[in-house]
Model the fold of this input.
Amino acid sequence: MTWQAASFVLLAVAVAAGFAWYERDRPPSRVLALVAALAALAVVGRLAFAAVPNVKPTTDIVLFAGFALGALPGFAVGAVTAIVSNIFLSQGPWTVWQMAGWGAVGVGGALLARILRGREPSRLVLAAACGLAGLAFGAWMDVYQWTLGARQDLDSYLVVAASSLPYNLAHAMGNVVFCLLIGPAFVRALERYRRRLEVRWPAPAGAAAGCLLLAVTIAGFALPQPALAATTADRAERYLLRAQNPDGGFGAAPGQSSSPLYTGWTGLGLAAAGRNPVDVERRGGRSIVGFVRRARGRADIGEVERTVLLLRSAGIDPRRFGGRNLLAAIERRRRADGSIAGFVSYTAFGILALRASGEPAGAATVAWLVRNQNGDGGFGVATSSGSDADMTGAALQALAAVRRGRGAAARRALGWLRSAQNGDGGFGQMPGRSSNAQSTAYAVQGLVAVGARSRAAGRALAYLRGLARRDGSIAYSRTSSQTPVWVTAQALMALRRTALPIGAVARAPRGRRSPKPAAAAATPAHPDGRSRVGAGEPRTAERPPKENEPKSSASGRLGEPAAGPGAARDTAFAIDPAPASRRAAAAAAPTGGGDAGPSPLLFAVLLGALLAAALAVWRRRRLSR
Done:
C-alpha cells in the first residue's frame, strides 16, 4: 500500500472514530443546534476570506468551540467545517486531513480549558493559543504534502515545511489578529450559552435547522458570489490574466519574455474559459491577437495550425491574417498519402484547424490518421513512435471533429487511455511514467471530445485539482512547477471540460475586456453543432516538456536532429498546433452587472438544514424511549 493510501485510510478511520465518540455521548438536540451554527459560522468565515491566502477566522472559531463547549463539540465543529467548506472550495484527498486537523484544534481548545481549570483566559493567552493552533494546523497539512512526494524522510519534510512557512505564518498571524478582536467576547458568549444548557432550556426539535439556516442564509446574501464560486478553474483563469505582458503576449512564467508558443496556448485556455482573445489585454497594452499578429515567424506548420485554432476562437478569418492565408499554408503541407507533413501530430492538429475554419479535413487525411493508429490502440507523435497519452488525446479530438468519435478507432483509443491511467488518476506521457498535468489534460480533452462516460475523466480532473497552487497556477507534477503559464493554460481547458476546436467566443462589452470574464457564449465548433463539453470549460492540445526531458523544444524544429529518443516528439509538440478545445455554450452567464441568481450556498444550506432537523427529531425520539 502506498503512503498516500495508507495515510488516507488511517485518517478516515480516526475521523470516523471521532464521530462515533461524539455519537456515543448522545448530545441533545440543542447541542446539535449549537454545533451546526458554529460550523456554519466557521464555514462562512473561511469562504468570506477566501481571497486572502491562509488568513481566516476558521481555526479560531473551532478552538473557541472546543474551549467553551468541550472536546466532543469542538471536534465535531472542526470536522464538519472542513467537509462542508470544501463543497465550495473543492473536495479531494486533503479533505480528510483538514477534518482531522481542525477536529484536533477543537480538542486542543478543550485541553486548554482543562489546563486553565475554569479560569477565563486573558486576551493575550487566548491569542497565543490561536497562533500556535495555526502553526500546528499548517505543520499537519505539510505532512499531507509530504506523503505525496517521491520520498518520505526528514529532509523531504523540511523542504515541504520551508516552502509553506510563509503561508503558515500568515495563518498564525491572522488567527492572532482575529482573536484579539473577537476572542474573549466570543468565548464568553459560548460559555453563557453552555451554562444555559446545563440548567434547562427547552429547544424546539427544529432548532438545529433554524440556527444553521439563519447563520448560513445570511452569509449566502452577505458574501459576494465570486467568493463562493472560486473554483480551481476560476483561480487558474485569474492567474493567467495576471501573467500577461504589456506587449499582449505570455511567457513560460509570469515576468518572462513573450513567446508565440505560450501566447497561443494561453489564448486557447482563456477562450475555453469564455474570454475572446481579442479582449484579453493589459491596460494600455496589446491584446493576445495583437501580439500574435506582430510576431515574426509562422514558418512551422505546427505554429500555423495553433494560430488558426486561436483565431477561430476569436472569430477571425485565418484566410486573411497578417497578409497570409494560413489555411493555404496547411494545404501546402498536405502530402499525396493524405498526411500533413508526415506526422501524426501535425495531421491531427491540421484536421482540427481545418474543421474549426469550416473546411473539410479530407477523407484521405482522416484515413491516414486512422491507419497510423498503433496496434495497442494509442497514437504516437510520428508513424514510428510509441503510443502516448498526449497524442492519443489529440487524435481523439480530431476523430470527434470529423464525426468519427464513436467509430472503431476511437473506441480502441479510449481503451488505451483507460489502461494507461495511473493510480493517482493522472496520466504520464507514456505508460508507466509518473503523472503530469499536461498529459492528463490531453487525455481529459480526448475523453470529453468523444463523450466518453466513465470514471476516468473524473479521476483525472481530481488529479489536476490536486496540483492547484495557492497563486492559482497548476503545477506540472507533484515534484515540478516548470513552465507554469503553459501548464495552467492546458489544464484550464481540461478543467472546463472543453475539447478542440473552440468556436468563436462572444466579445465582451466595452469597458469589461480583461478585468472580469464576459458572459461567454462560444459558438459550437463541432461539425454537427453539438457541444462536447460542459458550459464554461476549456480544452487543451499541447504539452510542455516532460520531467527529465529537454525544455528547449519550444524553439526546436522537426527537421533538426533529435537529442534523444523523446526529442523528436518534444519538438513536434512544442511547435505543433496548440489545439484549443471547443467550448460548449456558456450563454447567459452573468457578467457582474445583473442579478447573479441565488447563491449556490443557499441550496446547500437548505439541504443541510433539513438533515439537521431530521437528526434533531430522531435524537429526541430516541432519548424519550
Summary: Residues 232-575 form a domain with the Glycosyltransferase fold (CATH 1.50.10.20). Residues 154-199 form the longest helix (46 residues). The chain has a mean pLDDT of 76.
